[in-house]
Amino acid sequence: MATAYTPTVYGTGIKATVQRLGGRLAGMIMPNIGAFIAWGLITALFIDTGWLPNATLAELVDPILKYLLPVLIGYTGGRMVHDQRGAVVGAVATMGVVVGSDVPMFLGAMIVGPLAAYLIKLVDGFTESRTRAGFEMLVDNFSAGIVGAAMAVLGALGIGPVVQVFTTAAGNGVEWLLHHNLLPVASVLIEPAKVLFLNNAINHGVLTPLGSAEVADQGKSILFMLESNPGPGLGLLLAYLFFGPRSMRSTTPASMVIHFFGGIHEIYFPYVLMKPRLILAVVAGGAAGVFTFVVTGAGLVAAPSPGSILAYMAMTPRGGYFGVIAGVLAATVVSFAVAAVLLGFGRGSDDETPGGTPAAESTETAETTGPTGPTGATGAAAATETRDGIEPQQAGTTHTITDKDGAPVMKEA
Known about the structure:
Helices cover 63% and strands 5% of the residues. The protein has a domain at 359-412. It has helices spanning 14-29, 33-46, 55-58, 61-99, 106-127, 136-179, 187-218, 231-243, 246-249, 252-260, 269-274, 279-296, 309-314, 321-342, 359-369, and strands spanning 381-385, 390-394, 399-402, 408-412. The relative contact order is 0.09. The longest helix is centred in the middle third of the chain and has 44 residues, at 136-179. Helix 1 (14-29) runs parallel beside helix 7, helix 4 (61-99) packs across helix 6 (136-179) and helix 8 runs antiparallel to helix 10. With 413 residues, it is mostly helical. The protein has 15 helices and four strands. Strands 1-2 form a two-stranded antiparallel ribbon.
């Protein structure tokens, strides 16, 4: 399935399957980015360490994070599977995983919303031809209510606790990396997963809930920046602009604007997939950015959604701009340098023909030489040269070159 936020995926291999999964996850997150931005702005402004601390308005932060955002994700996921009926059942089922866990259930909503919608789709397919006329509304409403209630109970007792265990384990892993000064190593896992369009699942399903817990204790969190840093992608696109194939260079300026200022990281994923070795560039850039964030003590107060430099600045706490900007800049420089090396500083571009002759020169030679000699004009008038001038004749005929007195000098076919 293609969405408005991811390209159409063809093929049946493992990579294509993972990309389709990433496309579905992106389709659940991206339509709700406005709600994430609203939560981020409320958090940045009104929490204790915000720009305008306000205890009353700060009470909005927790309910939006734990209830509204997961329900919106579950609603959207259900709608993708079975339109409005799937959306309603998905939202009801999501409430089960929300109350069955103490952490924000973004990942749980991504699972239970589409699953509940798929079940009601199966039920509708079974009852459609078996429902007597006049009972359609009754059957439809009760079937949706029964499926929604059952999935909410399953979410509260089964799916929610399982997802919480997974989230807790991921949090412990991140905490271990942080305490051992190995947090940059996380880029080895995050960047390849991003390229397979799993960026939203990683960011909003795992890192955002963990970062939100840190904000409650410390007022900021570095976890919001592990996946969302726009630096690695910008460095890669800059390398393509200067050293990539000439056929691709014209596309990179617009891609850079969309990526860096628009926050749509998916725009650079195809550039990596075209030359998979470039994954090393974004991994190196991501690790350099995270290392800089750790050294400077940088952090954000909320998830920057989308991951643009503008969102980064909006979510930066007071006095924290140096570390944030330094980390983005370091990621850009390192990613650009590694990608430039991997691209051979332009030596591997398509500027030349397979024989090694520059394409422009080959074209010029073909135009001037032509199939019948230097004039390149088959069937055009050939010339009879004299010492006094040129007389046109048809190509392919025998003509004689004479001197000014008419004596033949040479005969030429």
